[in-house]
Amino acid sequence: MSRNPMVVRTVPALRRALDGLRTRRATIALVPTMGALHDGHVSLVRQARRRAQKIIVSIFVNPAQFAPTEDFGSYPRTWNADVAKLAAEKVDLIWNPDVKAMYPDGFATRIVPEGPAAAGLEDRFRPHFFGGVATVVGKLFTQCRPDVAVFGEKDFQQLRVVTQMARDLDLGVRVIGSRTVRERDGLAMSSRNVYLSAEQRLTAPTLYRVMKESAKQLKAGDDFANVMAAGRELIARAGFVPDYFEARHAETLAPVASMREGPVRILVAAKLGETRLIDNIAV
Fold first, then answer.
1. The domain spanning residue 26 has which CATH number?
2. Residue 273 — φ and ψ, nearest 5°?
3. Which residue, of 124, 156, 178, is where some domain finishes?
4. What is the rounded distance in angstroms from the CA atom of residue 121 to the CA atom of residue 144?
5. How many domains does the chain have?
6. Do 161 and 226 belong together in one domain?
7. Model pLDDT, residue 19
8. Distance (Å, whole) CA 8 – CA 92
9. Who's near 283: CB < 8 A, 6+ residues apart?
């Protein structure tokens, strides 16, 4: 039977635990999560294990990145299953603060990112989101003082934002992106997939199929505007309400119109019923 990781819930307890982990100058990797862990999260932990000697996983559902109309209250919370998964991966420490520990009374400081956070993708539809992400991740980095931090590529704009923030603020953390883990039919693993009905679950992999076909056409030299417009139409015909379906520069997230403009990424966000799905692939 796997030994459960140490669980700490206050900053003083975290600091004491970190002192213990750093004996013999051990390197530390952080995997930030909001819980409801699935195989995609497990892949991040395994990536972290390849990069450091000690592994911290944070579990904190961050209210600062949810708008009032979004699903903070109903976001899936599966603590016992999460601990079991992390124990099986031999995680050393779970950092599980409550809202008061992360945002104590009088908390008045926010990080307001620009650059990739203002690319006109997620920020166009969720203007509150990256300020909440940057603030909580900035706190996690300063609290846990990791050598590396691992984030999934599924949230690609978030990965770019966090990477830029760590570099700009000299936080001393190397941010590593880990490839998206998919179900057998191509659907990107996400904690929100549990919201899909059985019928919607059959439709959901359409996003990945359309992205793959669009990437193939772009690589073949087809017109970018026509390919992306056709992709949006295919998604809409399948029953999605697209927020965006765009080809962007993979580093800056600036719009691109040809493969000559740099490494290209296709990014999509669309609602299927009440569930909003995001995904992306390299071209």
1. 3.40.50.620
2. 65, -125
3. 178
4. 30
5. 2
6. no
7. 94
8. 11
9. 215, 218, 219, 247, 259, 263, 264, 265, 266
First to last CA, the chain: 43
Angle, to 10 degrees, between the axis of helix 129-144 and the axis of helix 156-168? 50
Q: Is the dihedral of CA 181, 175, 131, 85 positive or negative?
A: positive
Enzyme catalytic residues: 41
Neighbouring-strand partners of residue 270: 242, 277
What pTM did the predictor assign?
A: 0.94
User: Could you tell me the residue range of the domain that residue 118 belongs to?
Assistant: 6-178
**Residues 22 and 100 reside in one and the same domain:** yes
Taken as a whole, the chain contains a residue count of 283
Kindly provide the b/e burial profile for residues 211-248, where b requires at least 16 CB atoms within 10 angstroms of the residue's own CB: beebbebbeeeeebeebbebbbebbeebebebbbbbbb
CATH of the domain at 249: 3.30.1300.10
Each residue of 125-181: pLDDT tens digit?
A: 999 999 999 999 999 999 999 999 999 999 999 999 999 999 999 999 999 999 999
Burial of 160 (0-12, 13-18, 19+ CB in 10 A): buried
In a domain, 215, yes or no: yes
Check whether residue 172 and residue 209 sit in a common domain.
no
Could you read off the pLDDT of 85-102 as tens digits, one per residue? Answer: 999 999 999 999 999 999
1 pLDDT above the threshold of 80: no
How far is residue 162's CA from residue 171's CA, in Å, rounded to a whole number? 11
Block residue for tokens 């990080």 = 111
Residues 167 and 38 placed together within one structural domain of the fold? yes
* 225 and 111 within one domain: no
112 shares a domain with 209:
no
